[in-house]
User: Which sequence fits this backbone?
């Protein structure tokens, strides 16, 4: 129920914003698959409509194909976010819209299921070269978080793979504390 959900969100924000301002709390918001705002541009528009310099955007890389209905143009998403970008979640995924929407075979064919992956960088179809290039270009200095949850049985290995991708992608020297 996107219309009702958005109205409830706006009402909540009207109540919470004075408290956040009084307490000096910053807020980072993220659009999310199957939520009332799925598209990157809609999340940015919502944040801009709230018109508070302390409300910024969380960009979830593994949601890139949801953010623009199967295109996954991470560089464009970063450009669209502009000065609102505060937090980037790093993980890879496959494009659920690829192969004529038949990337995943589910039986029975009309079953109501969601396939949502957060893989190690390089295991899916996200263009990490473009992502890291764009983050370096804009001199991104916000939060970067490992958002892989595909390997709960091997978290140390998965974390090492993702951290290596982040360090190399953002040209972070090995000795820096991140």
Assistant:
């Amino acid at each position: 129920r996107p219309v009702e959900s958005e109205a409830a969100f706006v009402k909540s924000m009207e109540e919470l914003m004075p408290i956040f301002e009084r307490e000096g709390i910053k807020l980072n918001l993220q659009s999310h698959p199957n939520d009332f705002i799925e598209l990157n541009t809609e999340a940015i528009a919502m944040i801009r409509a709230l018109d508070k310099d302390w409300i910024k955007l969380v960009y979830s890389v593994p949601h890139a194909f949801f953010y623009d209905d199967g295109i996954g143009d991470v560089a464009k998403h970063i450009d669209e976010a502009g000065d609102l970008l505060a937090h980037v979640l790093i993980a890879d995924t496959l494009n659920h819209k690829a192969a004529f929407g038949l990337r995943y075979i589910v039986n029975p064919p009309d079953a109501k299921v969601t396939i949502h992956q957060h893989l190690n960088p390089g295991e899916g179809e996200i263009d990490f070269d473009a992502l890291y290039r764009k983050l370096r270009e804009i001199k991104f200095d916000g939060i970067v978080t490992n958002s892989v949850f595909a390997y709960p049985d091997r978290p140390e290995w998965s974390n090492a793979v993702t951290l290596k991708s982040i360090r190399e992608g953002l040209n972070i020297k090995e000795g820096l504390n991140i």
